[in-house]
Amino acid sequence: MIELRHLRTLAALAEAGSLTAAAARLHLTQSALSHQLKELEERLNLSLLDRAARPPTPTQAGRRLLELANRVLPQVDEALADLRGLAAGRTGRLYIASECHSCLEWLLPRLRGYRDRFPGVELDVVLSASLDPLPRLQEGALDVVLSPDRRPLPGLEWTPLFDYEMRLVVAAGHPLAGCPAVRPEDLAEQTLLVYPVARPRLDVFARFLWPAGVAPARVREVESTAMQVELAALGQGVAVLPDWACAHGVAEDRIRTVRLGAADGLTGRLHAAVRGAEARLAHLAGFLDAIR
């Protein structure tokens, strides 16, 4: 029954003090403003303005609506400004989680450049959501999930980012360090350092060891990529990590990496999942461009 234009009309009348000045403020003719006011009075079956007074003053009903206008219109204007900022990429929220534990080594440096382009976006990497982030993405608690495991889930849109190779990480003096490639059975006597996630989600099991009917001698769960590299460098086990996650240790000559299997080795592809309804938001599209 009551529209925002009606509230804006009453607010303009109260501020301007006359129909003529209010009409000019609203970019309307005086006749159009009077018609709008009369239309609202007919809807409410109440007089909102004492036209006999000079200048015209609000009636009791008019004052009540003016109170509403003074409370609601600033909130509406603030929300509209936020929405314009969201459409232009000036504002927004970007909560990121990753199913790829080693991704932080690669992601964090790229966020610095993104922050320069989108300084008004609320940005956070939600480490607590790394174990099962996709349901939280669907619910709206997260905005982007990085995952090597693309799954067809309702409402989500997936963007391929890049391909990578999984490499066996060993100490520089490890017996496997000089091999051109390792076979599944080469890991049968090794302590395998892995992330604390379900085994079927680990490529080294699902795509390398299990198809060959091989199990490592021992499995040790280690939460961080950096700690896996350090333990491997100390000869406390071997790890399987993306090539870019171990480049720093290789450069420092603390570890060696070896291809898994023959031919092209064990490769993967990293994807970014977002809610399809929001995939075209400027700050989300800008993030995908920054990390692709």
From TrEMBL:
The keyword Transcription regulation applies. Residues 2-59 form the HTH lysR-type domain. It comes from the Bacteria. Keywords: DNA-binding, Transcription, Transcription regulation. PROSITE patterns: HTH_LYSR. GO terms for molecular function: DNA-binding transcription factor activity; transcription cis-regulatory region binding. Pfam families: HTH_1 (PF00126), LysR_substrate (PF03466). Belongs to the LysR transcriptional regulatory family. PANTHER family: HTH-TYPE TRANSCRIPTIONAL REGULATOR, HTH-TYPE TRANSCRIPTIONAL REGULATOR METR. This is LysR family transcriptional regulator.
